[in-house]
């Protein structure tokens, strides 16, 4: 992500023909990238909230064994 932010600045210094419009275009691409990342973070956060909200009040219990034997 740091590369995305430093790339326009480096290009502006290294290439004299780099114009402000090119910089704005790169910033727009970075904005779209940040928006997509934020969407994923928000989806994961909401999923975690739903898991906590819908969890049983007494917690999850281990599954009962399928075979019942006096040896166990």
Order of secondary-structure elements = HH
Main beta sheet: strand number and arrangement?
A: none
Please report which band the strand proportion falls in: under 5%, 5-15%, 15-25%, 25-35%, 35-45% or over 45%. Answer: under 5%
Distance between the termini: 54 Å
How would the global form be characterised?
Answer: rod-shaped
Enumerate the spans where pLDDT stays under 50 for 5 or more consecutive residues: none
Number of strands: 0
Structural class: mainly alpha
Task: Write a concise synopsis of the structure shown.
The protein is mainly α and 72 residues long.
Task: Name its key features.
72 residues; mainly alpha; 67% helix
What does this structure look like?
The structure is a single chain. This protein has 72 residues and is an all-alpha fold. It is built from 2 helices and no strands. The chain has helices spanning 2-14, 20-54. Helix 1 (2-14) packs antiparallel against helix 2 (20-54). The radius of gyration is 26 Å and the shape is rod-shaped.
Lay out the secondary structure.
Blueprint: H1 2-14, H2 20-54
